[in-house]
Amino acid sequence: MHHSRWEARGLRLAMLGICVVAFGAPSAAAQQATSPIGQRGGLPSADNALQLGSLYDTARLTSPRIQAAEAQARARAAQALTVTRPPDPRVQLGLMNRELPGFAPMDPLGMSQLQVMQMLPTAGKLGLAAEVARVRATGVAFQAAEVAWEVRAGVAAAFYELYRVERAVGIAFETRRLMENVAGVAEAMYRVGEAPQADVLKARVEVARMSEEIVVMQAMRQVALARLGGLLDRAFGDSTPPAVLPAFPAQLPSQPELEAMALQGRPMLRAGDAEVAAADAARTLANRELIPDVELGFQYGQRGGAMGTERMGSLMVGASVPVFARRRQLPMRAEAEAMRAMAVADLTAMRAETRARVGAAYAEWQRARNLQALYRSTVLPQARAAVDAALASYRVGGVNLMTLLDNQATVNRYAQELAGLEAMEGIALAELEMLMGRELFDARRGADGPENR
Fold this sequence. Notes:
CATH topology: Outer membrane efflux proteins (OEP)
Number of domains: 1
Number of strands: 4
Strand content: 5-15%
CATH class: Mainly Alpha
Helix content: 55-70%
CATH superfamily: Outer membrane efflux proteins (OEP)
Order of helices and strands: HHHHEEHHHHEEHH
């Protein structure tokens, strides 16, 4: 029996050696997980990765929302050109004083007549109408630019969600591999009486649970790919390469500076400014609608006479009479005033919303950056130290196997949270770029890797 105990102890030490191999490098396991999504042995290379900058380029070319917004802007610009001209002239041809039946000209009254009439807006109304149309077309162009930035932010959000899910899948695969190794160790130790059967069962349950999580997260990857494909009007499948983070900026301007840039550069706010300017011009135009418009006309007639063809001409001048001013022109003034008040209120609300969203996105960016630094400098190193301590204690029977597994699961959970914080930083930056209407960093330049950031 004494000899058998030493054999069991030697087997236990051998099994612990396997544990050392399984748990000896938790950092690499958590940060550069091996999975079917990523490259084996590390993060994906730039040549075999899905890059955010290339998705931005694709969105500009293929996004249905961007194409629809740009087409609307072109249509409004073309429409504005039509307002710069007065109404089309009216041409009338008359055959006057004809005999019935036969329709021959009556002598001496029968004649053929041609009349041309042209309405000319007065008091600068034509120029004001053209100004309203031109400024509103400019506003629609700014709205199209806002749509492009919104699509860009949506693409970024889907990309970073895809990155987070892929990192979680990789960590889950690595965790399951470690659990399978531990389950083998526990079974071998149980056979020699050095571990309870509960350890074996618990390890197998953990392997099954990790398999379930992998299935769920792989489905989440398909959801993220579908969302990305919907924004870009293209299909993504299992063969899509893994997402790689771009190199984020180390610093940003202060929050007041970002707010000032957003208030000056956001396309939606510039569209609001254009709408207010158009409302001002429309109000001036409505106030001048009571001024009559002038209509000029020329009339030419001819008839046969004893001395040959007799020709005659007439000039006419007319004016519109606002006899329905109480029901037409005056309500137009009230409408223009209300539309201007609405445009001013909308612009004020958009400015307030922009400041609030800039503040929220900046706070999210700061939180993500600070927590990432905390995780990399303190949380993850301490969690990994806890795994090493639990392993050393387990060697001498100080803790059970489940304590070791729980500590390793904690490391993996923190690694997943770190990936979520990286995605949160990218989403906050995309939100700030959309609000300011300008890029804050080059999305085509890849990061060195999370462990070096």
